[in-house]
Each structure stands twice: as C-alpha cells, then as structure tokens.
C-alpha cells in the first residue's frame, strides 16, 4: 500500500468549499485501494471518500460526484462542507473502520452525554420522545453500543447470562418467559448459553469471563458438577440456580417442592380408591427424583400399605426403558397388577400410557396414570393427563428477581461490580421452594374393584 503525502491539491478558488481540520490516522474505503495515515484519501471522480465530520470530528464516508484528486498532508485534512454524509463505518480493506462513540451520538443528537447514557441503559427517567430521537440517530448512523466497554468502565453490564441444558428441554421456554418478564422491567437483556452433558460448567465459565458481557448467571442446572459455579459465586459473580438437582449446593436457588407435589399426587390416587400404586422413577441421582420417590413411599406407609418392590420400576427418563419397565408392570397377574401408576414426569407418563395400550388396558378405566411437570402437551394427549404442575414461569421470575438483587441493580446504572463473598453457610443463602399444583384431567379414575382371595376389596382388572 502506498502512503501519499504532499501539498493539498485543492484549487484556490475551490478551497472555500472545504473546511480545515485535524488529521487522524484512518483508512480509506476499499474502493480507493490505498490506505494512508489521514482521514481523507486520494479518490477517483465520483467515488467515495473518507472525511471527518466538521462538528463531531468523527470519520465518515461522503459520496461525491465531482471531487478532485486530493493529496493529504499528515498534519491536516480538508473535508467537504456540503457532502451527503453516509455511514459512519465503512467496509475497509487493509485498515480499521471508524466507529462512533457515545460522545458522537450526543453531539449528533444535540443532547448531553449523560442523557444518551440514560437511553442506552433503558432508564425510565428519559422522556419517550427523547428516547425515540436518540434511537433514531443511533439507527441512522448504525451505532452499536460496546457492552464490553461498559463492563470495563462500570464493572457490570445490562446483560445476564442464562445457562440451559438444551433448548429442547420442556422447562426452558417457560423459565425463560418468567426471566424475561422481570429483566425487561429493569432494562436487562439475556445472553443464552447451552451446557450439554459433554461439556462441564468450567469451560463455559471461561467463555463468560473472557467476554466480560454478563453481570450475573442464571443456571438451569443439569448433569454437570456445580463446583465451578460455587467457586465463581464465592469470587464475587452473582449466580442463581433454577430447578437445582442438588439441594445441598452452596448457591442461591429456586426450585419446586417436589416432595409435597408427589404427596399430593399420591393422596389424589388413594382418594380414588387405589391401593396398588406403581411408581416409574426418573433419574434417582437427582434430588428432585429422590424427593418424589420418598413421598411415594411415605404416602403408602402412612395409609397402612406396605410398598411392593415389584411396583417400583426405574425409568431414568429414557422412553425405551420407560415402556419396557411399564410392560413388566402390566404383565403381572391380574391380582398383582397396579391399578394406578405415579410417573415421575409427564414424558414418563406418556410411556406408561403407551405400554398400557399395548397390553390392552384402558386409561383410566383399567389403570390410572398421573404425571409430574404439566408440560404443554399434557393437555393435548388422549386422554388428557392428570399431573402435578411445576410453576416454571413463576420460578423464572423469582430467580431473575433474586439474581438482580445479587447484582444490586438500580434504575440508572448496573451494579458497580461484585466483591468476593467467600464461602457462606447454606442457611445464609437464599433458597426459594415454590409450591406445586394438582391439575386434574381425564387420565385418573376410580379404582376398578374385585374381590381378593383375602375377602377384602382389591383393586385390579379381571
């Protein structure tokens, strides 16, 4: 690339059409195919040129119809007064684009820098007309705020990271809906991260910290070890767990009351006259599944019913295994077969209902099926599924409120940066347990009654 220096090649009678300004090291558009350390470059007639705005000093592109070839002195440059200013950032080969700053937007808007800052932070103190004006100037000049720069300057941003196990998980959309409802009220946006089973939280945390974008993390926890998140929280980063699978982890958390939900499910089935109630489990290494199974056993024992090991089957949330284990239940002799099944998730309940149909059993006439979660499809299957509803939207809202409280937000500025908090006792950490609800539909009915060999009523199908 050639550097051009020399005299200003503007005719004396044309100089009144140009404004003298200070030079800046800048690249010219790629159409000139030359890069020089100044803000105006040699241009062809009718081509684009780069110049500094006479008011803001910002490097802009100007479309010219009859611009003469111009050589530029390294110490100064001339810009056309009556140019049609276009994009403040142009695609440049061999050099870097010029970018507007918040100071430039303030000058172009005719407002103070602090007012523009309030607009960028989505402050409710800004008049709506002023906000629209500033946003229009930003759009017209293709201005994109630098959130990373904000993070460096203030120690925080108007962004929170939301870590999910996968976008296909039924709970993710509902939790995100609740989170967004709260963050929008406070002028925060969400960055979505996925953490699948084959990637631990350590590598994801490295990405989050390197980008310097997130003021805090809201984590829908899954399989990964939580120690990296605990360490991150102890070092000062706000972290909140949602739907945690480990009740003893040293992090703020929001979860559903799995034990109480399962007790409600069992009470409903026993009120319908069921005694031989099977349980198809989820992943028993999860605390939520342990709580649901403990409630199942407690409900039977308190009703004077000895739990039958033959009626407990591992499902592990795997469809093929759920159907296979359910077939084993329905293959039992008629007087040993369950008349009701408590499934530890709605998806598990679907597998149970499929196996029942394969065995020639009707739901709910021959066997009742009750699920857990109340995912969207639960009301659409036939028969519609009776289930325990987890309040995923409300859990998302409470988790977002908890995280913003950890960040220390106010109306105008994000938090000033978190300080290391060290290890806190579990009792000192916010831990919200949300109530569940029984949603009664059509998959549960009265127990079919026959006479057992012991002469007392027994629930079974002949």
Q: Helix count? A: 12
State the end-to-end CA separation. Answer: 92 Å
Mean pLDDT: 75
% residues in beta strands = 15-25%
Q: Please indicate the count of domains.
A: 4
Q: What would CATH call the homologous superfamily of the largest domain?
A: Response regulator
Strand order of the largest sheet: 7-6-8-9-10-16
Task: Report the biggest beta sheet as strand number plus sense, adding barrel if it closes.
Answer: 6 strands, parallel
Architecture (CATH level 2) name of the largest domain: 3-Layer(aba) Sandwich
Multimeric state of these chains? Answer: single chain
Task: Determine the structural class based on helices, strands and strand pairing.
Answer: alpha/beta
Beta strand count = 19
Any idea of the CATH class of the largest domain?
A: Alpha Beta
Overall form: elongated
Domain HTH lacI-type: 100-154
Keywords: DNA-binding, Transcription, Transcription regulation
Organism: Kribbella capetownensis
Pfam families: LacI, Peripla_BP_3
Summarize the entry for a quick read.
With 462 residues, the chain is an alpha/beta fold. It has twelve helices and 19 strands. The chain folds into four domains: 12-98, no CATH class; 103-145, lambda repressor-like DNA-binding domains (434 Repressor (Amino-terminal Domain)); 156-255 and 394-433, Rossmann fold, CATH 3.40.50; 258-391 and 439-459, Rossmann fold (3-Layer(aba) Sandwich).
